[in-house]
Amino acid sequence: MLNWLIDPLHTAVCVLVLGALVWRWRRRIGMGLIAIGLSWGLLWSLPVASESLRDSLVRQRPSLPLPQSSQPPPRADAIVVLGGAIGPVSRFDQGDADAPALAGNRVALAARVWREQRTASILLSGGPAARTRGVAEARIMAAVLRKLGVPEQTMVLEDRSTSTRDNARNSAAIARQRDWRRVVLITSPLHLPRAARLFEHEGLQVLPMAPPEPRIATAPAWRPSLQAARRSGETLKEYALFVLSTI
Fold this sequence. Notes:
Elements: H1 2-6, H2 8-23, H3 27-43, H4 47-58, E1 78-82, H5 106-116, E2 121-125, H6 137-147, E3 155-158, H7 164-178, E4 182-186, H8 192-201, E5 205-209, H9 226-244
Parallel strand pairs: 1-2, 1-4, 2-3, 4-5
């Protein structure tokens, strides 16, 4: 229910309906609510507002520079990859983690980071999800990494987590068993601030890293679009969860 209400279009509709109901008894208040509902929905449908909101959240915990041959990533005991938005395994059939089509993929990024520090293990954290039809995301990521040339003995699977808090707790338990203290944490840019905070709360030193995120392709920036509204909803939800992660 909360997720539904956080979506700006859903919120706007609720405020519009409330304004219409109130208008029958208090016209000035009703008109004010209707104006607020319309303004709220319009604001977060603008690409410029949506992207600014996303940028403000990403700045809460920016990613380290992506691995370059001249500037390898900082050393870590392990690389932790969180499940989500992996894509079909067939996308990785070419076995090239540097393929331009995989530039924004977290698992391809993990393969590139591992190439720079082959002594690190890769912990894959993610349990069954609706989008994977009940298959653990950790197992899907393992299949992808094998296609990208990462040896199976390097991987450690944590396939029970169904939330970010689970990811952090279960991964930290494995880290303590293996005496890992410093990890590269890989997830999406939007998810990184909350994930890093939860992992650090579990006692791990986190090196945050995320693949680049594509911008909204629609133009101009001041023209409302459903894509911008959807992205605003995703960001508002993640912002709410980021704030709650401090509690």
